[in-house]
Amino acid sequence: MARVRCITEMGMGVDVHGKDATKAARRAVSDAIRHSSLGFFRMLGKTANDMFVDVTIGVPNPDAVDTAVVAKELPYGTVTVTAVKGGLEIPAEQGSDTIIIANAAVIVSLDGSKPG
Description:
- Helices cover 16% and strands 41% of the residues.
- It is of the alpha+beta class.
- Strands 1, 2, 3, 4 and 5 form a 5-stranded mixed sheet that branches.
């Protein structure tokens, strides 16, 4: 199957208190898709469930992201979430609190194989 990239969206999410990388990642994905309404599927004889949605999350500690929870931010398609090193961690001026900033790239593809 040859995938054809149709949409690339980017987003940023922040957890201001709590050092929760998953919360920041969920917010980044929500930010990326918040202003999108993909209506071109009907024109191609496809549905939203035919989408392949590949999400890359950049956070300081990728192991701290629950990718299954982040995947639930996407309502349609076959979703894959990968966390990689990136984003920002900003220590509080005093105390042990930290601001976590996550970046998200959401790529939507369709099967571009020709029938037959």
